[in-house]
Amino acid sequence: MVAVLVLLAGAASASAVVLPKGFTETTVWSGLRAPVVTRFADDGRVFVAGKGGSVDVFDSLEDTSPTRFVDLSEQVHDYWDRGLLGMTLDPHFTTGRPYVYVLYAYDKEPGNPLQPRWGDTCPSPPGPTEDGCVISGRLSRLAPDGTETVLIEGWCQQFPSHSVGGLEFGPDGQLYVSAGDGASFNWGDYGQNGNPCGDPVDPLDPTSAKGGSLRSQSFSRPAGEPVVLNGAILRVDPDTGAASAGNPAIADADENRRRIIAYGFRNPFRFTFRPGTRELWIGDVGADFIEEINRLQDVANVPNYGWPCYEGTELHWAFGTMGNQTCDALYAHNGTSDAYFSYRHGVPVVPGDPCPAAQGSISGLAFYTGDAFPAKFKQALFFSDHSRQCVWVAYAGAGGLPDMSTLETFASDVAIPVSLTEGPDGALYYADLLTGAIRRIEWRGNRPTAHVTATPSEGLAPLDVAFDGTGSTAPEGRELSYAWDLDGDGEYDDSTAAKPTFTYTSPGTVVARLRVTEVGGQSHTAAQTITIGALPTVAITAPDRFTVGETLDFSGSAQDSTGASLPASALTWSLAIRHCARTDATLCHTHPVENWVGKAGASVVAPDHEYPSHLQLSLTAVDGAGLLATKVVRIDPRTVDLTLASDPPGLELTLGNELAVAPFTRTVMARSQNSVAAKASQTLGGVPYTFAGWSGGVTPGGSVTAPASGTATYTARFTPPPTPTPTATATPTATPPPEDPPRVIPFLPPDLGGLPAAPKLLGAWGFNTGTKQRVAGRHGKALRLDGRNRFAVSPKPLDAFTVETWVYATRAGTVAQRGSAFRLPTTLRKRWTHLALTYDGTALRTYRDGKLIATKRGALPRSTSPLRFGAFVGRLDDVRLYDGALDAPQLARDMRAAVR
User: Fold this and answer.
1) What are the domain boundaries of the chain?
2) For this chain's UniProt record, which GO biological process terms are given (predicted)?
3) CATH of domain 639-719
C-alpha cells in the first residue's frame, strides 16, 4: 500500500473555486506527490501518474489507499518541468491487453552510458539554464507486473522545460505522442549554447543553425539530415513504437520522419480527440504572447504549425529577424497551419472574465461526451490554463465543432490544473500538480448535494466536535436521510442525526464523512478533515536574497507538540520558482524545481529565470501521529539594470524576449544569462544601416552575463553605406541639399479614413467590381471587403516607396499587390493589424504592427500594373502611400494617427 499524507475522498475543495450554478467541486484524493494524469479503467480502477515517476492504482473512486503499480523514479528526471508527464491505458485494458503506457523525461544523456545521469537535480556547471543538463525522453509500455518495454528513446533536451508531453489512443487504435522543443525559455535558442544534441550546420551561425527551438522544424530538413521528435505529434504502433501504417511519410528513409504527423510546436503538452472523429485538438503552450488550440483534421498530410518561426500568426521576435534559413524559407512559402483558436497574454480569454490574464499556459483539453451535465454541454470543448487557474467551455456548433463565439468561463480560481479528463460518472476531473490532489467537478442540479461543517475542526484531545449536515440540499426540497462515518473507518454507521457530535481522544487526522440520500434513492457524500492535537512547529534557516549561480545553503528543524525534535526522516523540502508578470508582479505561476526527502538541510545552486521571479522554499514536517505542518519562505533575487544602446541611437534591438527601440533599460537577475540580438539591417531616417557588431562583452552566440551588481551597457554598432569617393575635378562642386523626407503621394484622396465615396475617382483610386460599404474602422470608418470587391490606384513606378494600412482580416489573402513587383499578404485574423511594405531601392521590408518581420534584398521589377488593394475578406482602414521608405519610428507615428 502507498501512504498518502491526507486523504479527502469526497471532501469539498479547499480552493474558492467559482462554478456555474448547480456545479460543485470536490477533492477526490489529496496528499499525492505531484499528480499529472488520471485514467479510468473499465473495471472501476483509477490510475494516477505522479511527476516523480510513480503510477498508483485506486480500486475505485471510493478507495482511499492506493497501491503502487510502478515506480520509475530511478529512470525519471524529476526536475523543473521535467518528469513523468504522460500516461494512458490500452483501449483494451480489461479485455486482453492490460498495458499502461508512460512518457517521461529519461535521466540519461544521449551517448553517455551513465544512468541515472543527474539525479533529480542539475548541478552548476553545467547549470539548468546556462548550458543545461542534457537528457532524453522515453515512451514505454508497462506490463501488469510493471515490467517496462521501451518503445522509443529520443527527444534530446538541453533545458528543463518544454519536455515530453501527453499520450492518447486514437479511435484507430494507434498511439499518439506529443513533446516540446526542449529548448531555452530565456532566449531565442538556435543551439548556440554548445549544441549538445548535435544538430546540423554551424550552431554559432544563426542564419544556418538548426538546433534549439528550430528542432521543432526538423521534419522539413533535407534528406540526409537527421529528423528529431521534438516539437511534434507522433502516431506509432503501440506494440513496437514504429511509425503506424498510413502515416503520411511512411515510405521515408528516416524512421523519425515516418512517425511524425504534425510539427512546429513549442510545447504541445496536452491534446485530445474530438468524439466521433479522428481529429486531434492540441493545446500548444506559448512563449511570450500566444496560447493556441490547434485542430489536426486527419493524417493525410503533415501540417506545420510554425514554431519557432511564428508564435501564433506573428513572426517570432528573434527568429523572424535573424535571417535564419529555415524560417525564411517558411516565410517565403507561408506554409503554416493557423490555430483553430488562440488567446493572447495580457488579454482575457472571455471579455470580463475574472481570470488573471497577464500570463498564460494552456494545460488541458477535453470534449464532454457524458450525460451527467446539462444537455448544452454535450460535445462541448473544455480547456484549462495552469497560469490563469481557470477552465473555459466552448459549446458545439455547426457540424459538432466548438463554436468559439459561445466561449464562457466555466471555472475560475481553480487549483493548478495540468490535465482534464472525463470520468465514468460523467464528472470532469483534473490533476492539481502543486497541491497534490485529484479534483472532481460535477453537476448536482437535479440531485442531492451533501454539505458538512464541523465546530471546531481542530484542537487538542479530547476534542468534542459538533457536526452539521443541515446545509445539504435536495431538488424540490425532497426529504433527506443522513448517515455519518465519524471515526474514519469507511463505515457510515456512527450516526443518522442531522447534527451529531463526536469526541476524538487520540492525536491524528480523521476524515469524517456524511452521506445524504433522498427519497428516490440518489445519494451524495461530503467530507470534513478533523485534526486532533497540535501541529508540529517548523523552522527554516535560509538566506533571503540570492545571486544566480551561487550556492544556497539551507537547513530546518521541527518539533512535535511535546517539544521533541522530529528526525530528518520526517522532513520534506521543496524548491520552486515563482515567475511573475512583468506588468503585475503579484500575478505569478509556479515552476517546481527540486525536492529533498528525509534531509535536515541541503544546498542548491541558485537558478536563473526571467525577471520578475523569486524562489519559494518550503519545509513540511510530519509527526508520529501523522500531523503535518509546512513553512514557506521567499528568497528574492538581487537585480541589476542592463541597457541596450545602438550606434546610431533609434535602431531596434532585442533583449531576452523583448524587441524595443534603443536605448532602453531593463531589470534582470544579477549574474543571469541574457540573449541580445540585432537585425542584420535597418533603416533610420531613410538611411540603411548594417549591423557591424557588439561592444561590451557579448559572446559570439549573442549572450551576455549580467554583472553581480551595478549596471551594464551593451552597444550594437551599425554602419551606414559608404560615401562615394568624389571624382577629381578642377571645378568645385556644390554639396547637394539633404534628400527630402518621403512625402505622401499627392493623387491620393484626402479622406483616406473613409476611402473614395464617388465613382469619379475610378481609374485613379477605385473598385474593380462590386459595391463599396463603410463599416466601423480602426479610426472612424473602414472599407468592408469580401475578397472579390477591390480597388486600385495607378502611380508611376517608384524607385522608393511605402505602402501601409490597417487590416482586420477574417480570412487570409492579399492586402496589396502590384503585378509581379511586390505583394503584401495577411494571415492574421479577427483583430486590427498594421501592415506596411517599404522599399528603399535595395531591399523590400515587411512590417507588422511596427515590427520588421521580413527583408528581401534586391531590385524590384518595374511594373506598370495598378496597385490593387482588397483581395481578402475583412476591413481596410487608413491607407497611406509614400514615395520613399519610412523607418520604424515613422511607421509608429502613422500607427498612432488617423488619416484625416
Assistant:
1) 71-442, 453-532, 537-633, 639-719, 759-896
2) carbohydrate metabolic process
3) 3.10.20
